[in-house]
User: What shape does this take?
Amino acid sequence: MYAARSTPPDRITSLHNPRIKDVARLQEKSTERRRQGLTVVEGYRELSHARQAGWAVAQLLLCPELAGDALTRELQAAASAYELLTVSAAVFAKLAVRERSDGVLAVLHTPRRTLADLKLPANPLILVLEAVEKPGNLGAILRTADAAPAHAVLVGDPRTDLYNPNVIRASLGGIFTVPTVAVPMPEVLAFLREKSVLIALNMPTLVPSPVMPEQPLF
Assistant: This one.
């Protein structure tokens, strides 16, 4: 579906173009993102973060009127690495979320990371989340984890898609820099026991700050 092209296709001006509908489905439906192993990011900065982290670009949508001449030339020059779709301002506005977009939107291949893929130091700082629901909250936590910096984020029993575009946008690049894995909570706890990770709890119903035991709780 997202094959690389050596030359950009004709400019897309129709809101009903099948390619545009495909991208919209990826934005809106987690089932499509999981099935295809793809997600959507908006903005040249986010695209740069993703590429630096090794995420492969499947397709790039570019609106020259918004991107400007210099950025348009740069992205067109690299088009052999991905499929480039040039779109009108009206079409881009259908997909864009930001009020002041730079005319760049990319479809990315998402990593299929597992707990076994994590490479951790001797005393890692791991942030564990359980049953997080709101994409914006998850993205904000990833942003905090990046600033800490945490060595990994483990999301147990997630109720939102890890690669929801809203998660990516709220993370401000954190999704690309902090290794993040979403698995059932029992697998998270088993992993922490196996690694002998000291666990601190932050449970507002019990204490206002983390509890630091002398021994692991699990």
Notes: Residues 44 and 104 are 6 Å apart (CA to CA).
